[in-house]
Amino acid sequence: MAAEQEEGLKLLGVRASPFSHRVQLALKLKGVQHEYLQENLENKSQLLLKYNPIYKKVPVLLHKEKPIIESLVIIEYIDETWDGYKILPHEPYRRALARFWAIFIAEKCMYTIWTTAWTFDEEKREKGTEEVSEILKTLENELKDKLFFGGDALGFVDIVGVFLAFWFPILHQVLGLPQLVVIENFPKLYDWSQRLLDLNVVKETLPPKEDVFAAFSANLQRSNNATK
Amino acid sequence: MAAEQEEGLKLLGVRASPFSHRVQLALKLKGVQHEYLQENLENKSQLLLKYNPIYKKVPVLLHKEKPIIESLVIIEYIDETWDGYKILPHEPYRRALARFWAIFIAEKCMYTIWTTAWTFDEEKREKGTEEVSEILKTLENELKDKLFFGGDALGFVDIVGVFLAFWFPILHQVLGLPQLVVIENFPKLYDWSQRLLDLNVVKETLPPKEDVFAAFSANLQRSNNATK
After folding, report:
1. From residue B97, how far is each of A12, A149, A215, B80 by CA, in Å?
2. Which positions fall inside the GST N-terminal domain (chains A, B) (predicted)?
């Protein structure tokens, strides 16, 4: 993967964010160099407010001064704009499946994990835990004996799935989620997660574990203070 | 548009549903004939449970006995599988914009309208109404002086936007939403909505107004009973 120079390509992101990471990983897979601009969400830059006035969120990819927003939309844009590594499969049915599972992880799975993790209402947490367990079972069944969701190589679904391999165990550590939903309970999913974390492209783009741990801990502290 | 015969192409849908309609409209634009199977959500068919075990929802497109799920994913699949009418633009940046706005309408806009319409908590409704008004302003600004969101012809965003042209005014009628968010208050959006409803492909695929009115009224009746 020869790094391709791309004049004026900028990524507005937050290092500890799984949403920003997806885009960094997609750019790395394509070998496209870019300027990375770290955002402070407590004090958003003029650039972020100008280019994403609707959501005011990261990631934003700026290419030839035109903004691309929403991480899944950005990944498809990267795949269609630069040659090299193929992130989405070529065949329409396999593309549809990749989109379906990417959305499943990005929305249903992450949303359920997130809301379950950050609720301190016992009943809701119990119900959420069951749902998370069902979702992980569904992913385990979908993965079957494939090396990656994308088949033999990392693809669209795996890029989104890095959340499960990296962020999810840290969330567990910080919040003490029930054992039921530890990723180790899902052997295929667990092996896949280790395979993901072993890839150099993934290693080189992930934020330091301590930063994510610190971000979740600060969030926990804030929510403890809010409920006191 | 010559109708193309497509052996074994089936659509599982619900006639009054805007999600099913999107797919019918996309197939109509391509001139692809299919068998339409009406689902009863109170008593789901074995076919629906078999092919969409995760969500158990419509629409499901069955092509060569393989299911495609999630309306936006289905539309992209249709666009990539059949020649003829181009639903998404070819150029990557314009494709990214189309995806962004389609998601904006399908998720943020419809979700906010729906939850605002069906809440009977006055404070929440007031806040929701303001949000809906902001969203419609955003769409008005995006539309500018274009005939369609897709430019001179109906595209991905417009297909999803039929909800605003057809379902939204009926929702207004049934639930008496505040005047603030009547589509007539947004002149460009209103003209666009009339332009959409005037197209034969749209007319020929829309369900009868009375059916949607009846479905919303039944929903209102159920929610009135539930809160009594």
Report:
1. 18, 27, 32, 18
2. 7-86
CB distance B30 to B13 below 8 Å? no
A37 near B64, Cβ under 8 Å?
A: no
Which chain B positions have a beta carbon within 8 Å of A92's beta carbon?
A: 77, 80-81
ipTM: 0.94
Token output for B175: 């639930």
Q: Are B112 and B181 in contact (CB under 8 A)?
A: no
Please report which helix (H) or strand (E) contains residue B35, including its range.
strand B35-38
Q: Give φ, ψ of A89 to 5 degrees.
A: -65, 160
Mapped onto helix, strand or coil, the DSSP state of residue B32 is: strand
**What would the pLDDT profile of B84-133 be if each residue is shown by its tens digit?**
999 999 999 999 999 999 999 999 999 999 999 888 898 998 999 999 99
* A5 interface with B at CB cutoff 8 Å: no
CA B132 to centroid of chain Cα atoms: 17
Of A76, A95, A103, the CB nearest to B80: A95
* Mean pLDDT per 10-residue interval, chain A, length 228 residues: 70 96 98 96 94 96 96 98 97 98 97 91 92 96 95 97 96 79 90 97 97 92 78
CB A161 within 8 A of CB A21: no
- Nearest residue on chain B to A54, judged by CA atoms? B138
Per the omega criterion (within 30 degrees of 0), is the bond before A59 cis?
Answer: yes
Q: How far is CA A175 from CA A16, A116, A152, in A?
A: 17, 10, 34
- Report residue A122 CA to chain centroid gap: 27
- DSSP state, residue B54: T
**Closest chain A residue to B90, measured at CA:** A80
Q: Which two structure tokens, joined as six digits, stand for B77?
A: 């699949």
List the domains of chain B with CATH numbers: 10-81 (3.40.30.10), 92-227 (1.20.1050.10)
